[in-house]
Amino acid sequence: MKGNAVIGQSGGPTSVINASLAGAVSAALKNPDIGTVYGMNYGIEGFMQERLINLSAQKKEVLEGLKTTPSSALGSSRHKVRESDFPRILEVLKKFDIRYFFLIGGNDTMDTIHRVEKYCRAQNYELYGVGIPKTVDNDLFGTHHTPGFMSAARYNILSVKQSGVLARDMQKVDKFVIYQTVGRDAGWLAAATALAKEKESDAPHLIYMPETKFNQAEFIADAKACIEKYGFCSIVCGEGIKYADGTPVSASQTKDKFNNIEFGAMGGTSVALQLHRMLREETGFRGEFQITESLIMCAADRAVQRDIDEAFACGEEAVRLASEGKSGVMVTIEPDSADPNRSVFGTAPLSEVAVNAKEMPRDFINERGNFVTEKFYNYMKPLIADLPHYVELDKNL
């Protein structure tokens, strides 16, 4: 089918989201059926305002440089599409003769593509809509891992590894350190920091993930035990951990447009600060807290090369699928059965991706809910590039 293409980016960025954009643009420019390639300036929100960037007219060095440029080059949006938006979306699609529709994002983004593609079909407007996966949280349904996760995981691993060395050497000043990472409902990023540990005494000692219920008494007991055993305690927590009754440990009640709790927003505080307060009040010890928030989403200097390459390939694959008449699907990544260090691509229906999330399997988390199991290590190790080794002095006094 002849027509133009449009590509958008939605939600939070990743270190490699622009690599997916570069891959999609590269493939679209080579496709004889695709005319002009447009970019949505500020997602579907900008699209309805006809804020379209002519990607076909970009300089070659700019398109090549996208592959290693952080953040969202097109500009992002968290607009939740309403039923009243669809006539306007279709109007813009028709005006610019757009027949190929690509969005790079997570669950909410896949829901947007699914609904737009479904609406166009009902209006007898032929449109091929394909989703390109993206999220640092690694919680997209139907795919083994997501572009952006590996790089964000490595950022967290290095941060916890380095802050653990600091905490070990400063234990006469600060007895504990708490590192908070993003992850509303999934603990993949928090769990990944376990790879910072080389020996038992290394950081992290305790990891708390949203998949298990947080128990304050057990947390304090476990932290005290680590301080007694190692002289300090390194704790990692996902921002979305909750008590058994479902109350967020952050105490936040603020919700975004998609009805998701905004952890650390007005009306609450960050999880790391809450855990810091608990330990401080219980032990009297001084400690540190470290909250990276969106830094892990835009740290191109810590990006994993495999992550960059796979993100680019996902963009290419989306265009290939659409050019073959595939629509209503998201590109997925699976490890190659012959070599876990390589990946192959597949698809998942947007209708399923939009309504499901991929939590960590319970057997990836230990029974007490404060660390990971060997199964998680087996899942994670092929995804992370070599990590540095830090030495420690022999304390021969």
Give descriptors for this structure.
397 residues; alpha/beta; 2 domains; 4-stranded parallel sheet; Rossmann fold; 12 helices
Spatial strand arrangement across the major sheet? 3-2-1-4-5-12-13
CATH topology group of the largest domain:
Rossmann fold
Give a count of the beta strands, DSSP E runs of length 2 or more: 13
* Second rung of CATH, namely the architecture of the largest domain: 3-Layer(aba) Sandwich
Class based on secondary structure composition and strand pairing: alpha/beta
Mean pLDDT: 94
The CATH class of the largest domain: Alpha Beta
Biggest pleated sheet: 7 strands, mixed
Q: Report the order of strands and helices.
A: EHEHEHHEHEHEHEEHEEHEHEEHH
Span from first to last CA? 77 Å
Outline type? elongated
Oligomer: single chain
What is the share of helical residues? Answer: 25-40%
Spans of at least 5 consecutive residues whose pLDDT stays below 50 are none
Blueprint (SSEs and pairs):
Layout (H helix, E strand, L loop, with lengths): L2 E7 L7 H14 L3 E7 L2 H6 L3 E3 L5 H6 L20 H10 L2 E8 L1 H16 L5 E6 L15 H21 L6 E6 L6 H5 L13 E3 L4 E2 L1 H15 L2 E6 L3 E2 L27 H13 L3 E5 L13 H19 L5 E8 L2 E11 H4 L20 H7 L17
Parallel strand pairs: 1-2, 1-4, 4-5, 5-12, 6-9, 6-11, 7-9, 8-10
Antiparallel strand pairs: 2-3, 12-13
Helix pairs in contact: 1-10, 8-9
